[in-house]
Structure to design on (320 residues):
């Protein structure tokens, strides 16, 4: 998740110009995956949290090998993008790398389209792939990036053929003020924007002292996530900490229905929240937010598992 309002305001002033688009495709569709979800989402597969954590381990290794971070303009970010792209290419997605410039450095978005579905009705799911310079960014936002990657791979394994066209995205330079996602949205024609039926955003979903927050922007998307957690017996709260602070904002400002999940950043968990979610009151949801300790040890497996399954539930339900 990006910096505070003052940091964002300064960052947004950085130049951001679209300079190239590259399209690469490869891969094949594998066999079907089993379904293990609440009854209301019988068609959606279970997202194996071990697979999500394996992606996080790879992102951690990339950060360790590249100065301890995966920040915009640094080698760790491009290596992270290359890792995700290779997985998607092998799974049969059509991948597009969108290049832009911000703060004098080159940044990249990765867009992955699943073949088929109604091109006039596009469901998107996205997360930012960059970290801050202070650390590897495993919760912020390796967690969202790894979970939607595994959801995309589950689409391939299932040979899923949704009614809507599915598109996944990994954004660059979010920590500088949603530069990558804004570049993407601003580059769309009004006709292309109107074809996006919904954009789902996942920015920090494995916080070590987690909450269960659902974006309250679009009622249909919000209810979809709430229904999933109700089926688990987990109560949710409207997401307010990140309002306008992540990659859903450019889509929302362009009139696209948006929604998403969030497990909390540097706000403090209250006693009431601890009583219903567990964890420790009086402490931040993520005490390692934007710090060097945001490593693979900074993840709550239960939150990561629940939110990963909720992503698949929503993708299947909203694309059918």
């Amino acid at each position: 998740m990006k910096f505070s309002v003052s940091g964002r305001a300064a960052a947004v002033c950085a130049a951001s110009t679209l300079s190239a688009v590259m399209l690469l495709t490869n891969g094949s569709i594998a066999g079907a995956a089993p379904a293990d979800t609440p009854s209301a989402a019988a068609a959606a597969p279970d997202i194996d949290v071990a697979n999500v954590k394996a992606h996080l381990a790879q992102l951690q290794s990339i950060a360790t090998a590249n100065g301890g971070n995966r920040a915009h303009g640094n080698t760790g970010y491009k290596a992270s993008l290359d890792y995700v792209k290779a997985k998607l290419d092998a799974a049969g997605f059509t991948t597009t790398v969108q290049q832009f410039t911000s703060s004098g450095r080159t940044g990249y978005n990765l867009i992955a389209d699943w073949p088929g579905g109604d091109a006039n009705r596009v469901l998107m799911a996205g997360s930012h792939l960059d970290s801050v310079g202070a650390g590897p960014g495993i919760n912020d936002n390796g967690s969202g990036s790894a979970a939607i990657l595994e959801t995309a791979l589950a689409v391939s394994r299932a040979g899923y053929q949704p009614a809507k066209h599915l598109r996944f995205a990994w954004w660059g330079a979010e920590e500088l003020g949603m530069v990558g996602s804004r570049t993407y949205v601003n580059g769309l024609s009004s006709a292309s924007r109107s074809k996006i039926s919904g954009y789902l955003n996942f920015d920090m979903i494995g916080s070590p002292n987690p909450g269960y927050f659902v974006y309250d922007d679009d009622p249909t998307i919000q209810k979809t996530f709430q229904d999933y957690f109700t089926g688990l017996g987990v109560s949710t709260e409207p997401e307010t900490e990140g309002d306008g602070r992540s990659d859903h904002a450019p889509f929302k400002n362009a009139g696209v229905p948006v929604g998403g999940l969030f497990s909390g950043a540097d706000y403090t968990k209250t006693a009431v929240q601890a009583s219903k979610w567990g964890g420790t009151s009086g402490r931040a949801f993520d005490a390692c937010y934007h710090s060097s300790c945001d490593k693979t040890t900074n993840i709550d497996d239960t939150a990561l598992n629940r939110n990963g399954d909720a992503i698949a539930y929503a993708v299947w339900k909203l694309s059918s």
